[in-house]
Design a protein that fits this description.
The protein is mainly β. It has three domains: 232 residues, no CATH class; 86 residues; 99 residues, Immunoglobulin-like (Sandwich), CATH 2.60.40. The chain is 3% helix and 58% strand. A hairpin with a 2-residue loop joins β14 and β15.
Length: 429
Amino acid sequence: MKYSRRSTWLVAGLFAVLLQACGGGGSDSTGNASVRFINATQTHASLDLLAGSTTIISATAQDTASTAVSQTAGSITIQANDAGDTTSLTSTTMALGKDLHYSVLAYESGGSVKLALLGEDLAVPTTGSAVLRLYNAGNTAGTFDVYVTATDTDLSTVSAPTITTTNTAPAYLVGSFTPGTYRVRITAAGAKSDLRLDIPSFTLSDQQTATVILTPSAGGSLVNGGLMVQQGSFSAYRNTSARVRLAAAVSGNALVTASAGSSVIESGVVAPAIGPYVTVPVASALAVSINGAPQSTSLALTAGTDVTLMVHGAPGAATVSAIVDDNLLPASAANLKLRLVNGLTGAPIGLSLYADFGLLASNIQPAQASVASVLAGSTSMQVEAKSAVTQQSVFLNTALNLPGSRVYTLFLLGDSAAPVGLLSKDRGG
């Protein structure tokens, strides 16, 4: 395998081709451009693409690319609708250059459909080589290390990533490669064991340019993928994993163990406690035990999600539930997200969450979570949780350093008569 990390002319060409939605590529309206549509959304089974008020591509199924159509070059308003629907999901203005080729990518972030314009006119690689690039529409999932290896390479033996992304720039040149079959693994930056996506096998042909496309998952930490061959095929690579952590909210300092198939989430942790996220296959059956006694659970995991596995109550009468976590980073790096999880045992008590005396969430019941609130980051924020009934404070910190571009959860655990507050930094920093 051969590749070059950064070739100046290729990088310049890559950004000119990939980022034409930002004004590059020209706007000569004296001819036509070629446009196709990729539906990489999570929840929209079929989409129409409109230019102005005219449907130019109909019913593109999820995880597929349409055939290309001819569209007048120039500055146009592109819109995506559910197939056959007249309601706009999103729209944006894009510049199409004469005689150029484009893919319009539809994906979801934070529950909203987004559109990106990907150019497909990078110079043809020299004979005996192929070019791989990356478009990171999932950049709200943070920074990534990208490893391009042989399909059977043990990642622990690889000394350094092929490239490292940032959470701001979307387009990257991965490198020039000898034609062949490869594997791409995306991990959290600096954390080789924290796998965010695995594309187990794909082929680069001679003089081919291909783009790995990353799009956000439902949970915000994992990403979905696709492989787009320039002016050629598109293959979707949905994430088949979820990230799970244990919230041991069992009274009496019980020992709690949780697993998903052969993957251990936590083993014999003393409650109350919060564990780290562990990436597991979604097909794995969840198993929980308290003091060695198996607990009944039929919970199923959804691909791409982050989940807090809440084990709550007294030994012998505990319940196991799944709290779906929203770990998508705030749109602005100056902001943070904060929520409350009520894991108190004993007498039932609803909790309310306050930040700098402002009410964020009210009457959150045991084994439940509030919706995350978006706040400006602060070096000295007062965070308080109170009984929703008596207004008695059960947690108070008057000077928390909570920078932006992060996601936090305040867990209240232990007996309701002696609550334990644990602030978890779930994402960022």
